[in-house]
């Protein structure tokens, strides 16, 4: 007799709506649980048989995964962007739970990787740094908006410099505007200081990780980008090869085609026509894409062998923007290989492969 139980959960900050289903999809029970560790654990311990649990990725996903994993046979933190069934028809917590339970039972959920708890520390430090980077950008935009609102040109970075602040404040026509701008300058100084401190703490923690030396030896990847790779990808062994790593980094070229076959002499034959390229994949990790695109720009400025590789691509007729993308893909492939093998970067090996191999 099949004793599998499939548990789907709709999680919010205070409450969890849970549905339990058997192997045939019949509802065993639906209930509400307080979003508290003890209540969740007690609920799962009372379920008989082999228990499979799912809930959508969210703010509390890492904590819930660590809480439930020792108590059940399987925990799937699913990607909400892939759950098209939940967007169709009526919507409520109980309806969503029933749909999630069906997808879980059918094996149609796409899981979001949850790394070991040991890697959560660096991930939190990277999140802290990235949020402070966003805060600096936000304050800068607000500051420039004060000047633009009075028709004052603020092109460039001089408006943020501490030495020119009196001069810039003097351009504002009223005391109220000067008071507002002065407060934004103080906020900018504070957030910049916090960002610098967060970067130091993050990089110090990243250096303790096993793959730090291999990743940081790659052109364009300094301490900050290396920390972001370590905290985001967590382990290189999640990816079989570069063809699986590129989509995760948003560097996979997406192609589309239709009517691929024709009938010739009584048999089906594939048409000889070029694939239609549709750009890069949209479902990706934004941090990883920013890391490798930024690394490509830095490497082209600082490393002669990368410049040589780029020039070879351009000489073969590739557009500059596509050549730069190919450099980013090359760096991503190098990081994956070095990280897996625990080796350092060798500049002599960069140009050994044919330039066209990274475009596939």
Q: Can you walk me through this structure?
A:
By secondary structure, the chain is α/β, with parallel strands linked by helices. The protein folds into three domains: 4-106, ATPase, nucleotide binding domain (Nucleotidyltransferase, domain 5); 119-206; 212-359, no CATH class. Helices cover 48% and strands 14% of the residues. The chain has a five-stranded mixed beta sheet with strand order 3-2-1-4-5, with helices on both faces. A two-stranded antiparallel sheet has the order 6-9. The chain has a two-stranded antiparallel sheet with strand order 7-8. Mean pLDDT is 90; it is low at 353-360.
Spell out the key features of this protein:
single chain; 360 residues; alpha/beta; Nucleotidyltransferase, domain 5; 3 domains; five-stranded mixed sheet; two-stranded antiparallel sheet; 12 helices; 48% helix; 14% strand
Strand content: 5-15%
User: What gross morphology would you assign?
Assistant: globular
The helix count comes to 12
Strand order of the largest sheet: 3-2-1-4-5
Element-level helix/strand string:
EEEHEHEHHHHHHHEEEEHHH
Structure summary, number of beta strands: 9
Which whole number gives the mean pLDDT? 90
Uncertain spans: 353-360
Query: What is the structural class?
Result: alpha/beta
Q: In angstroms, what separates the terminal alpha carbons?
A: 49 Å
